[in-house]
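Sequence only, no structure available. Ideas?
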Amino acid sequence: MDDDVPEVWAIERVSFTNPWHESAFLGEIHNYPVSHPYVIIHSIEKRIIGYFIYWTLNKEVQISNIAIHPDYRRMGIGETVLRQLLSQLRKNRTKFIFLEVRPSNTAALNLYRKLDFEIVGIRKDYYRNPEEHAIIMGRRLVQ
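Reply:
I predicted one. Tokens follow.
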């Protein structure tokens, strides 16, 4: 997975105004069993077109980062990947999943609402460049 970091970092830089540093991705790869990084590979082009990272904390999961390359957005890839992740987490008896999202990221907010995430809180002054609060969204998976 270390070899995937340059491609993942390129997607990160075109996706976010305040991107993670390349070394942060290396840290996530080597932080098993807490961190679970995955790449999304286009089946025909055989190239990385997205990624997601989530953390497992007991029977809860936090999505810490997710992005699809701009050339592949609005094709349902993010939704498909999240639906598969939610299904797998339910099988693993994960109780709750949560994430943070910028209020200005309406595409992500709409996707999360479509997948039955609800607003559970706000983190004041969480994001930089530009400064914004973070909306904390969550969803119960199993009782």
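The radius of gyration is 15 Å.
Hope that gets you unstuck.
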